[in-house]
Amino acid sequence: MTTLHHLGFPRVGAKRELKFAQERYWRKELSEQDLLDIAQKLREINWQNQAKENADYVTVADFTFYDHILDLQVATGAIPKRFGFDSQKLTLEQYFELARGNKDQFAIEMTKWFDTNYHYLVPEFHKNTEFKANPSHYVKQIKEAKALGFNTKPVIVGPLTFLWLGKEKGETFNRLQLLEKLLPIYTEILNAFIAEGVEWIQIDEPALALDLPKEWLEAYNYVYTELAKVNARLLLTTYFGSVAEHAPLLKSLPVDGLHLDLVRAPEQLSAFTDYEKVLSLGVIDGRNIWRANLNETLNLLEPLKATLGERLWIAPSCSLLHTPYDLSVETELQDKKPDLYNWLSFTLQKIKELHILKTALNQGRDAVAAELEQSQLAAQTRAESKDIHRIEVTARLAHLPENADKRKSPFAERIKEQNQWLNLPLLPTTTIGSFPQTPEIRYARASFKKGELSLEDYETAMKKEIEYVVRRQEELDLDVLVHGEAERNDMVEYFGELLDGFAFTKFGWVQSYGSRCVKPPVIYGDVARPTPMTVRWSQYAQSLTKKVMKGMLTGPVTILQWSFVRNDIPRSTVCKQIGVALSDEVLDLEKAGIKVIQIDEPAIREGLPLKRANWDSYLKWAGEAFRLSYMGVQDDTQIHTHMCYSEFNDILPAIAALDADVITIETSRSDMELLTAFSDFKYPNDIGPGVYDIHSPRVPTADEIEHLLRKALKVVPKERLWVNPDCGLKTRGWTETIEQLRTMIDVTKKLRKELA
Fold first, then answer.
1. Looking at the predicted structure, is the pLDDT value of residue 369 above 80?
2. What is the separation of C-alpha 273 from the centre of its chain, rounded to a whole number of angstroms?
3. 640 tagged catalytic
């Protein structure tokens, strides 16, 4: 019989119950016990759904209150010493302070989980880091599931991936040196799982999909020889890319099974067909929302079933935390776009698809003939749909002007024209774009969508919020203002709603980090901009002030990365379509007198293929798409871009090739670490390193901001240095925002006098 299992499940609940409970807890409106009860209920629902669709094992220990890598830091005693917390007696309040910071300590650094839009909290390793096991968070979940009668399979990120994802702090050393101290802790944690009677333990090693150094690869044999000594069966799990080049190594490891992601890397299967243990195949996409063609999947699996027999397991390609919970609640989409609805599959539909595959493999296709016919029909109607391809979009992309993605003049000439009319002081101050999305803003938007507020009244409410933002910025004496984005629900969703080729769900939320959830648009067809999207809002904001108003757009790569993207044409083509559509908006802003325009690209690093061999082709088309987004602008129009929560050291030539006049980057959590690379590279254009972390409610001290700015001045010429927060301010409250910005501006003015 073929075994069906899952690698992980969404944590936040079908209706974001965990998010709302967390935020109520943080506001002191919900007790700790109530939060714990809600979390337990969500876990139970997840297990019930897996069992209902015939999973042989329900996955446990995948639930987290904030981040699974933070949980692992707690479980191994590797939380940062600077907080002064005891990992063995960590309270829930202290756990959240690790993630969000407190009055004494900034939060643990956050960055992207491989090439996804999920953020993990980066472990801080010191040469003298000591580890101590505390598996209680995991064991609690195993006990709960077993008490409900479920057959459990706990999951934990493996020790080499854990170390790889961390950073060395303090004295220079190689964090791989910590492995010898860490490994006994893992053994202790696994033994705690075994004490609860588990048969299989899933150990995730997605780092194997990267270009790991030789010494790290060689450590796998040592690690799994030691871990295999525990009295349980180990399933080594890989995902997000091919591990075919490591096939000899992986086949030799003393584990009991191996998982491969056949959605992202179907070609790797040929390297493992002679694998003699359990082979788990990820055949349902855990990263995207398109319905699988189950007949084609069975064409792949049936010969393997004949060869492998009971050693064949089937699963999603990776954890389903990256997909929305349930398609069936999207009744509005079903009514408006029934064909598109029929092409989609969310978490609950994906586990049903796996159930169908398992039944077909164990009982024959006739047992699920109706389901297979429906799957085939959906694939056929999508392939033949007239709603996807637009001749005019294809023609425009094919006939772009020569050098369409190049500015008229080099930066050294452009900046002179820009400085002449901008007339900004030394160390000009600005923000990244958004200001607090207050309850009043959200209420007005919700009321308008429900039809309870007229368009006129909604726009009046948004204009009132914009004026408030402008006046507060004037009072603070910021140099380049923004309109605050009151009218925007999300930096990608807002634009997707106004571009052709996009569709939207109502409940398609996925976790980005902690309680932060996003609802990615669905790019199902060719992309074009039918009408201006931001111009009148920016014009209105500019009419309120004599200061410079900055236009705000989201860039093509980020729109692509943070959407569920069609998989019937190359991603590069979709990205360039978005870039060309955005260029119409940029030129309209320029004509309207908005001549400082920020095109945010926080996701450009995130989109990098995991293998370096594929980087150049990606960076080439991603850079071209970004430059196409501002094609045709005049030299005196200043193009800004913003990037955050990624490492850029290894792609600085590509960042420079974007040719933005000003780049703003997140640097506060890393203590300006990133700027050293920009200095070594001699980044040619203006830079605005973030001087405080906006994901924490704490107000930075003047000394902290001054420290960061002085570090920045050591590597960036004062004439090219801008001052700004790390990111947008939409998630903050007004009181803390004003205090944070006032501190930033006061310190800036102090340094201006000194530098003058």
1. yes
2. 33
3. no
CA angle 269, 275, 276 (to 5 degrees): 155
Q: What is the pTM of this model?
A: 0.89
Domain membership of residue 49 (yes or no) is no
Pair type for strands 312-316 and 480-481: unpaired
Identify the helix (H) or strand (E) that includes residue 257.
Answer: strand 257-261
Three-class HEC string of 264-308: CCHHHHHHCCCCCCEEEEEEECCCCCECCCHHHHHHHHHHHHHHH
Determine the Cα–Cα distance for residues 655 and 651; give it in Å rounded to an integer.
6
575 is in an annotated binding site: no
Strand-by-strand arrangement of the 233-237 sheet: 3-4, 312-316, 278-284, 257-261, 233-237, 200-204, 152-157, 58-60
Active-site pick, 322, 355, 695, 707:
695
- Annotated ligand binding at 644? The verdict is yes
Tens digit of each residue's pLDDT (9 = 90 or more) over 288-300: 999 999 999 999 9
Residue 37 included in any domain: no
The DSSP H or E segment spanning 599 is strand 596-600
C-alpha distances in Å from residue 699, one per residue of 27, 319, 436, 737, 744? 17, 36, 15, 8, 10
SS3 745: helix
The answer to whether the beta carbons of residues 318 and 7 sit under 8 Å apart is yes
Please give the average per-residue pLDDT across 434-455, as a whole number: 92
Q: Name residues whose C-beta falls within 8 Å of residue 20's C-beta, 6 or more positions apart in sequence.
A: none
pLDDT of residue 649: 78
Is 38 in contact with 18 (CB distance < 8 Å)? Answer: yes
Question: Mean pLDDT in the chain?
Answer: 95
Mean pLDDT confidence for 364-393: 95
Tell me if 191 is assigned to a ligand binding site: no
What is the count of structural domains for the chain? Answer: 1
Task: Please indicate if the annotation marks 319 as binding a ligand.
Answer: no
Q: Which amino acid belongs to residue 656?
A: A
Q: Are 655 and 648 in contact (CB under 8 A)?
A: yes
Other beta carbons within 10 angstroms of residue 274's beta carbon come to 9
Closest CA to 675 of 689, 691, 694, 655: 689
Domain that holds residue 627: 411-755
291 inside domain? no
Output the domain CATH number for residue 483.
3.20.20.210
